[in-house]
Each structure stands twice: as structure tokens, then as C-alpha cells.
Amino acid sequence: MLDPSKGNPINILIVEDNPGDVRLIIEALREFKVANRLHSVEDGEEATDYLYKRGRFTAVPRPDLILLDLNLPRKDGREVLAEIKADADLCNIPVVILTSSQAEQDILKSYNLHANCYITKPVDLDQFMAVIKSIEEFWLTVVKLP
Amino acid sequence: MKDLDTRIEKFLLRLDRLQEDLLTGKLEVNQALKQVTEDLSVAVEELRGSEEEIRSIARFPGENPNPIIRFSREGKVLYANTTSTIQLAGCIGGLGTTATEFWRRAIVKAFSSGSVYETELVCHEQTFKLLFTPILEQNYINVYGQNVTESKRIEAALRDSENRLNRAQEIAHLGSWELDLTNNRLTWSDEVYRIFGLAPQEFDATYEAFLEAVHPDDRRIVNEAYSGSIHQKLDSYEVEHRVMRKSTGEIRFVHEKCEHIRDESGRIIRSIGMVHDITERKVAEEKLFEAVNNLTRSNAELEQFAYVASHDLQEPLRMVSSYVTLLARRYKGKLDQDADEFIHYAVDGATRMQQMVQDLLELSRIQTKGKLFAQFSAQEALDQALSNLTLKIHETQTQITYGALPQVVGDESQFVHLFQNLIDNAIKYHHLEPPRILIGVSRKDGEWVFSIADNGLGLDSKHFTRIFGIFQQVHRSRKNAGTGIGLSICKRIVERHGGRIWVESELGRGATFYFTLPTN
Fold first, then answer.
1. Residue A123 is nearest to which of B318, B323, B326, comparing CB atoms?
2. Residues in chain B closer than 8 A to A123 (CB atoms)
3. Tens of pLDDT along B482-512?
4. Which residue on chain A is closest to B320 by alpha carbon?
5. Contact, B317 vs B378, CB < 8 A?
6. Rounded (10°) CA dihedral B146, B149, B154, B155
7. Facing residue for B315 by CB, picked from A100, A124, A126
8. Are strands B174-180 and B268-277 parallel, antiparallel or unpaired?
9. Is residue A10 within 8 Å of A37, Cβ to Cβ?
10. For residues B119 and A58, what is the distance between their CA atoms, to the nearest angstrom?
11. Which of A99, B114, B134, B349 has its CA 20 to 30 A from that of A54?
12. Element (H, E) at B437
């Protein structure tokens, strides 16, 4: 289904309410080796609408990777994660929790909800770039996705 | 005297009988004369004896060691015994003279009442108790005196000490009571009455009256304390309870202590106790407790505030820092020199502020997010700290010497941090030569005393306390840029472990940081 070597761009969905972070991720992904197409939504409701192709998201592609913030308006990132992992159709999409929360219970809860990876947003830009790059390498080149 | 009268009567009777016998011729004159002579000689003998007896009796008041005086109803001195002439010399007046006004008044009072009149007289600084005893049919009055100076003094001293005790009890709010079990008599000191909200000695003390003064909810425990001490054959007991003042409804807190006194057979004959009004102390304790609670709460709130503030500051700060860094990455050398410099300062400021916020966050987490205490090796904590500082130690060619460190109880990760901060400091503020650091430990008065000594810049004694305060830096320079929170963190960690931290130093001669940790 996914083969970056063939040059098909991969679709990444960013669920993040802070446009500053969205832009940073975009800037970091610019330096990706792999062709990618970014889609961003600002809250949990929009995230599920996107995934179920509701409303203005009827024509969007299925994401190959989701970067999910935990603290979101309207619908919490934890709820979004639970919904994705409970859905037979969506549960295969790798979800990376990307958040500034360092609370242990958040980390545990996310893994319990089958988050594929949990990453605390680094405070330093270079580290942030490195993290985004490592997500790319890990999820798009190392892991064989279904 | 009556005895003498009957004897004379008998003698006269005998003479009558002799006369009769002479007249009837039963007895001859010679015989009669002889008998009379015999009787007379016996009578004379007896009379002699009687006279001696009378004299002896008459001497009796004179020999009395107490003053005895007789006055006529008009106040003339009829008799004064030796003691009174000596002890009351000058206070009465001579024999046959009229006594002074004091005496005359007393005599009038005694006669007018017709009974004994008691009064006191001070003469030559001695106090006499005088009993004026009028003999109405004889129209004279006998006065019996007694020198009561000493007993008055003792009485006064006793009253004085009782008053003082009473006053002391009043000041201390400490009443005393005594129960005599041989007659079931209970006595309370004045202060007991006062504590119970009663007037001193308002009524006779009883156990029932006591129980009534006790707060209804505390009567059971008070009763049990007393009866329990008797059943369990204890010599004493203590109980704390409330007293409800009947008149005002006011509640007082008292501490009672009682001791039983036993006879040889072990039977309790007396119980003595004290009632201490501790209301003020209780109120103060409660206030203190409340103040401590408030302080603890406000401390926790402050910590929470610091945590939330520093945590929430991180987000916008991350944006600032990330974007100025991004600016620097993308545009360095592409704009003019001014732009490069501005960006440089923006990046520098953002980076330092980030460090500060992180340190603040850490400081606020020491208490609230600290781990439970467990036993660990201080040696391993030091090793970990040194390993975290490997690069820095290598770069600065720092020489570190240390002996074996003990097993201790605490939060190991905080200890790693403590060592790391102190060693980092010692390296940071080094002098001209490469830093040398000596780490040691000794045991003193139930505490471990750790020391971290360096050969660095040292500091003046006026900074010894200040440096442990937040945002306080002694050496400010670009090169040594610190956040000014490191030592505050150290202090917090040490205090969380029940220890103290301080520094000893001389400017230019290195510094030694000490911190203690209780051994148990």
C-alpha cells in the first residue's frame, strides 16, 4: 500500500491547535527526503471529521501517519486516539502523540489507548527538527506498514 | 472551806454531847476536860493543816504564769498576780488605783452583758488575750490573760502563706483539691471554684458539684479516670476535659492530675489533685495549628502556582525560541550585520529564559513531585552525577577526589541532582588553575555531614546566606551564565530531606559547601 521508493507522496495529518507548531512541523518536514503532503486540522472534532470524510473533508486522502496533540479544543486528543484505535478501518494508521505534556499519566494513558509512539515536544528547535526527522525515518523507512 | 465548816460543826456537836453527858452525870469533869483537850488539840492540828491548805490555794493565782487581775466593779485594781505585774507593767496601774480607760470600758461591757467578755491588749509589743469574767454577787471582776503573741504570729504567717498560695493558684490558674476518704470530706481551693465559674467557697465542695461542673460530654471519661485509677490500684491519674461554667455557659479546658495516698494496708485514705485551666494554651495551640495549616496550604498553593506558571510559560517561550532559532538558521549572513546581531541577542535571551523557566519548574517540583524516600547508596548517586558531568569535567580538566560515601535514606534522583549542581557550581566558578574538588563525608550528632570543597573563586561571607535565595548570583558573567536557581534547588532538596545546607569560604580561596542528612 505504501512504498515511498515509488515516489508517491505520503499523506500526513497534523492535529494541532497551535499554528506555530504546525508551521514548525511543516518547516521540519520540508527537509524530508520523502515526498509528503501535509494536512492539518485544529481540533479533535475536525480530526474525526477528516478521518470519516465528513463535511468539508469529503475529498481528502486517507492519512498514512497522524501526528496528534493531546490537549485540543472541542474534542480531546485522548478521545480522538480512542476513536481511531476502536475503528477497524482506522486502527492501522500509525499515530504519534506529539505534545508538551510530560505528565506520566498522559504517557501511560496514550500507550494504553494504543498510541504507536509518544513524543514530548522538545523545547529546542534543533531537537524539534531532529524529532520530526526521526519520526520520518522510523515510520516511513524502517517500519513496514500494513 | 466547806470541809472546815463541817468539821467545826462536828466539833460543836461533840461539845454539846459532852455538856449533856456532864449534866446527866454520865461523864465526870475530869474526863470531860481531858476529852475536850484531846479534841481541841486534834482540831487545832486540823486547823493548822487547813490554814496551810488555804494559804496554798491563795498562792495559786500568784503562781499562775498567765496574768490574773481582779478589779472592783468601779475599776479599782484589787489584785494583780506576779505575772501581770511583770508582763503588763505600766499597762494596768498600781494596786488600789483606778485602771486606765481600756480596762474600765471592758469592765463596763462585761458587767452590762453579765457574761465573759473577751478582748485583746497589746502591751510592750506583746499581745494578750483577756477574758473579763464578772462575779456579779461579789461586785468584782476577774480578768484572766494569756500571752498570745507567738500563736498570733504563727497564725498570721500561716494566713499570709495561704494567701500567697491562693494568689499563686489564681495567677497560674491552678486549683487544688483534697478528698479525705476517712470522712469523705472534699475541699477545693479558691481557684477551683473560680475555674468552675463559682465564687470561692460558695458552697461546700462535693464530688457531685464537681461532676456538674464537668462538660456533660466529658463526665464519663472523668468518672472513668478516677474510678479506673482505684480499680487498677494506680497511685495517680491524669485527665484532660472541658468545664462548662453554669452561670455563663463558657467552656474551659482543664488538665487534672490526682495522686492517691495510702495507709500501711494499702487502702487509699486521701486523694489530692490539681485542676489546671489550660484554655489559653489550648486556644494558642489551636491557633498555631491553624497557622501551620494555613502556611502549609499557602506553601502548596505557591508551589502549585510556580509549577503552573513555569509550565505554561514554556509553551509561548518554545514558540519564541524556536522561531528566532529558525530565523537564525535561515537568514544568518543573508541580511545585514545589524539583523544578525539582533537575532543573536534574541536567541541568547530566549535560550536563557528557557533555562530559567525549566529550573523554576524543577524547583517547584521538588516537594510535590518528589519520590518516596528509600535507602540508596550516596556513592552511586555521586557516581551518576559525575557521569552526567563527564564532558564538562574532561573539558575543564577538573580533578575530583572523594572517599567512600555511605548508604542513606532519601530520594536518590534528587541526590544525584544535588551532587551534580554543587559539583557543577564548583567547576563553573573556578579560578586560574584547573578546578580541584574534594568530596567528603563525616558523621556528627546523628547526621551525615557531606562537604564539597573547591579551589575556586570563593565568596565573601556577606553572600553566604543570599546565594541560596532564588535568582541570586554572586559572580555574574556571560561565561558563567547560570539561572540563579541552582543553589535554591539544592537547598530545597536538602530541606526536604530534613537537613541543612551552608557554605564556608573566603574570597579567592575556594569554597566548601556543606549539607547534612539525618542518619535515621
1. B318
2. 314, 317-318, 321, 354, 358
3. 667 888 889 989 999 999 999 998 888 888 9
4. A20
5. no
6. 70
7. A100
8. antiparallel
9. yes
10. 125
11. A99
12. strand B436-444
